[in-house]
Design brief:
The chain is an alpha/beta fold and about 500 residues long. The chain contains 13 helices and 27 strands. The strands form eight sheets. It has a five-stranded parallel beta sheet with strand order 3-2-1-7-19, covered by helices on one side. The protein binds flavin-adenine dinucleotide.
């Protein structure tokens, strides 16, 4: 039987997940010939964890998504350090360049999936790039493991850094540099940081928290130039800030050049339908390079959900598998700052169709806003309030009814209400507990059954809790529940935990 050749362009978080999902549906490789082509020289890694690498809590090697040799053992043909330079949608081939100057390779496909992600937006700052548009020495973006290495090499204690952009990534970079002993200034064009995830009141509390940690926040300003000689950054009001290092974290742009050149429809990103097909026959797109129902996501969860949908379709399980969109939950992964944001928090206090609950304790760096509509959480922001994040995330994700005592949403377990809905016993097996590493309750249960008896052992087996750490209390709760419901340890060696949940487990 002729195998279907599926070529995936991009060995990032969505592309590698797709390859894994496809192989899971054809474990012996009888039907699917999977080729993954990735421009980065590294094996697939968890990009989310780069903030932890920058902060020095883990190494680049710890970010690898799979152990050495895993892809070969799965019979997946991974070509790292190879860039796809063209697509011929009529001949169904892609052109590849391995950068060695040895010429171009052509690879044929039956199905092509674009998972080219995004690139950092480089704002127009005089002196930041050379004549070939490459960043000059002392200026770095924050997107790849290569960027991270470059920043770490330049981050010497006592020297100064300016981070452009007070969004999630900018703040994570700034916190990491602060922890490396640098003098750090964040320059952000809006009146408060993380304006996409926060409201002004929450933004003011976050600014205070960051300032108290030692970060200088310059808000409502843009950088216009970098002076290499004086090692400064010049702002639009003429202020000069010391900057031995300038980190650009001013947003991302979907990587669509390949699709555009091939005549595939592109708007803000590559346009896909509910089956995640592009305008070209037999070409799909997933992850940050895809635009679905007008939405372009900048988080990993949608890409992983899209990978599962495309795998279902291309592996012949369900030719009409559809994607319906993903509800976003964002967590700031920065030491000493606990911030989670989900859904739509734009409703005002006296909104007639929503209940808006708020709590502000700026002196202690705490702020919470929860928006409830028809007894469901439609949005929330929680700063300095880690105890309620797990419960609220579960309520939001599963759209479960909220407790009658609404205050418990803001103050958590202490109130004695609202805990039950998110108890491990009632949580579905498919609930994602650790978003950074995409670990479900089922996987934790499987790890427990394989001998992982505690949070540390679960972390080793599944990587849960090793990202932002925000799921630690939920993992702890699952351990307690399993200890009570499955008290007898089995003499069974721990084995490699399947990285995709076993359907129906738990
Ligand atoms: C520091 C950092 C922290 C983050 N933290 C979070 C977080 O806490 N939570 C969250 O949900 N998200 C977070 N994100 C975002 C998350 O990493 C992305 O949403 C996710 O990586 C998107 O996956 P992707 O596969 O679409 O793109 P990517 O992971 O960027 O992969 C795309 C790959 O395609 C390759 N490529 C592009 N063009 C070509 C070509 N022509 N030929 C071959 N290969 C090509 C690229 O080199 C890249 O390796 C973070 C990102 C960063 C940088």
């Amino acid at each position: 039987m002729k195998r279907t050749r599926i070529v995936v362009v991009g060995n990032g978080m969505a592309g590698s997940r797709l390859a894994e999902e496809l192989r899971r549906r054809d474990p012996d490789g009888e039907r699917l010939d999977i080729v993954v082509i990735g421009a980065e020289a590294h094996p697939a890694y968890n990009r989310i964890l780069l903030s932890n690498v920058l902060a020095g809590s883990i190494t680049g090697r710890d970010t690898r998504l799979k152990p050495d040799g895993w892809w070969e053992r799965q019979g997946i043909d991974v070509r790292s350090g190879v860039r796809v330079t063209g697509i011929d949608t009529a001949a169904r081939t892609v052109r590849c360049d391995d950068g060695t100057g040895a010429g171009h390779d052509e690879i044929g496909y039956d199905e092509l999936v674009l998972a080219t992600g995004s690139r950092s937006f480089i704002p127009p700052i005089a002196g930041a790039v050379d004549e070939s548009d490459a960043l000059v020495d002392g200026v770095a973006a924050f997107r790849t493991i290569g960027d991270c290495d470059q920043i770490i090499a330049a981050a010497t204690g006592g020297s100064s850094a300016v981070v452009l952009g007070g969004g999630l990534l900018g703040l994570e970079a700034a916190r990491g540099l602060l922890m490396r002993g640098m003098d750090v200034t964040v320059v952000h064009p809006k009146d408060f940081p993380m304006e996409r995830q926060l409201d002004p009141a929450g933004g003011a509390v976050l600014t205070r928290v960051l300032t108290e940690l030692g970060m200088r926040m310059v808000l409502g300003r843009r950088a216009v130039a970098r002076d290499a000689e004086n090692r400064t950054v010049v702002l639009d009001d003429g202020t000069e800030l010391p900057a031995d290092l300038l980190v650009l974290s001013a947003g991302i742009r979907p990587e669509v050049s390949l699709a555009e050149a091939a005549g595939i429809a592109v708007d803000q990103a590559i346009v896909v339908d509910d089956l995640l097909r592009t305008s070209a026959p037999r070409v799909s797109a997933i992850g940050e390079c895809a635009q679905h129902r007008g939405e372009v996501y900048g988080l990993v969860q949608p890409g992983w959900e899209q990978a599962a949908v495309v795998a279902e379709r291309l592996a012949g399980e369900n030719r009409f598998a559809t994607y319906h969109g993903t509800a976003n939950v964002t967590r700031l992964k920065a030491h000493d700052i606990d911030l989670a944001s989900m859904g739509d928090i734009s409703a005002e206090m006296h909104c007639s169709h929503s209940e808006v609950l708020t709590l502000a304790d700026p002196t202690r760096g705490r702020y919470a806003k929860v928006v409830v509509r028809e007894d469901r959480v439609v949005g929330a922001v929680l700063l300095g309030n880690p105890d309620v994040v797990g419960t609220l995330t579960q309520l939001f994700d599963a759209q479960l009814p909220v407790p009658v005592d609404r205050m418990s949403l803001l103050i958590g377990r202490g109130s004695g209400a609202g805990v039950e809905v998110a108890s491990p016993a009632t949580m579905p097996g498919s609930a994602v507990v650790c978003r950074c590493n995409s670990v479900t309750k089922s996987q934790l249960t499987t790890a427990w059954k394989a001998g992982a008896r505690g949070v540390a052992a679960m972390a080793t087996e599944t990587r849960a809790t090793t990202g932002c750490g925000g799921c630690s209390s939920v993992v702890q709760g699952i351990c307690e529940w399993l200890r009570n419901s499955d008290p007898e340890p089995r003499d069974q060696p721990a084995h490699e935990t399947p990285s995709i949940e076993e359907e129906g487990a738990a």
